[in-house]
């Protein structure tokens, strides 16, 4: 049975917008529906025929109107645990009640399936939603893992790429693999999953698997500069730093959360590989680190807007 109607909850976010663009290009005959608190925040003129619904994540009546008649719901919520757990549970319950066949959870992250519940605390919501979907009788859960967003790896808050000094900061040896997938590539794979009625369960996609030293080589190849490499310490020292920083800063996540992501990536604890599902959709080309950098001017690396990462807007 073909997929005819797809709904994107949280469509005004970065992933939601790119997913809508990818779906419109790959399947122009598919009916697209979007749910947002304020649809006017985004110009959807490039998406003719999209049906926009205004509604809050906890407005059951608005959600029911949004999901009614959908084949697939994609959740692109991004927020605190209350939204990511209770908000998704409400969306799942109403979608199941309305006969929706599949629910694509708001994941797009490293492989939390390999971790104990709450071990990487910012991904506990993903784990709890996964468990909740596992209890459902009729709606099937889908979880798309992509490692880390390439765009975010170079963002200032992630503390790897220093634009001012053109330095790559790292822990460990610099040889550890990073699984990186850009926002755009993640949306492309998600679109393929949406259109594949057989796609259920946990799916893993990687745009690139590359080390810090490989990133340095990519920067040299694309931009013609040789970045500095600055070692911050050992893996053990990173582990101690992330724990101490959480104790110190508590709710101020952006002061320390990058340590946690870096640790669970370079330790290998939350790597997706070695098996990936890229081959399931050969029509989607993996965007490597160098491919990504060729789309982004050096002064925009780590500060990409939707216009830089999308092939639909010339860079």
Commentary on this structure:
- The protein is of the alpha/beta class and 315 residues long.
- The chain has eleven helices and 13 strands.
- It has a seven-stranded parallel sheet, with helices on both faces. The protein has a three-stranded mixed sheet with strand order 7-10-12. A three-stranded mixed sheet has the order 8-9-13.
- The protein is globular, with a radius of gyration of 19 Å.
- The protein starts with a strand and ends in a 6-residue tail after the last helix.
- The model is unreliable at 305-315 (pLDDT under 50).
- Pfam families: NAD_binding_10 (PF13460).
- Residues 10-105 form the NAD(P)-binding domain.
Concise account of the structure shown:
This is NAD(P)-binding domain-containing protein. This protein is 36% helix and 17% strand.
Describe the structure using short key phrases:
315 residues; alpha/beta; Rossmann fold; seven-stranded parallel beta sheet; three-stranded mixed beta sheet; 11 helices; 13 strands; 17% strand; disordered C terminus; NAD(P)-binding domain-containing protein
């Amino acid at each position: 049975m073909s997929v005819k109607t797809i709904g994107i909850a949280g469509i005004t976010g970065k992933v939601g917008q790119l997913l809508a663009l990818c779906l419109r290009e790959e399947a122009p005959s598919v009916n697209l529906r979007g749910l947002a608190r304020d649809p006017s925040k985004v110009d959807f003129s490039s998406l003719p025929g999209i049906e926009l619904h205004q509604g809050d994540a906890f407005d059951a009546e608005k959600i029911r109107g949004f999901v009614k008649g959908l084949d697939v719901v994609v959740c692109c919520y991004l927020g605190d645990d209350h939204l990511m757990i209770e908000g998704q549970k409400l969306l799942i319950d109403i979608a199941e009640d309305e006969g929706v066949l599949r629910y694509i959870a708001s994941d797009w992250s490293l492989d939390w399936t390999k971790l104990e519940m709450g071990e990487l605390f910012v991904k506990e919501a993903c784990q709890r939603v996964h468990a909740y979907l596992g209890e459902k009788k009729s709606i099937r859960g889908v979880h798309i893992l992509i490692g880390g967003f390439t765009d975010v790896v170079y963002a200032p808050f992630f503390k790897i790429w220093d634009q001012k000094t053109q330095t790559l900061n790292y822990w460990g040896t610099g040889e550890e693999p990073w699984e990186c997938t850009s926002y755009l590539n993640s949306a492309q794979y998600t679109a393929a999953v949406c259109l594949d009625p057989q796609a259920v369960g946990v799916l893993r996609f990687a745009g690139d698997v590359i080390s810090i030293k490989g990133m340095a080589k990519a920067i040299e190849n694309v931009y013609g500069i040789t970045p500095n490499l600055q070692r911050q310490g050992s893996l053990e020292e990173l582990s101690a730093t992330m724990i101490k920083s959480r104790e110190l800063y508590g709710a101020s996540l952006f002061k320390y959360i990058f340590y946690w992501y870096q640790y669970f990536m370079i330790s290998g604890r939350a790597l997706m590989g070695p098996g990936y599902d890229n081959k399931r959709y050969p029509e989607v080309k993996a965007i490597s680190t160098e491919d990504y950098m060729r789309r982004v001017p050096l002064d925009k690396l780590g500060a990409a807007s939707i216009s830089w990462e999308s092939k639909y807007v010339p860079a």
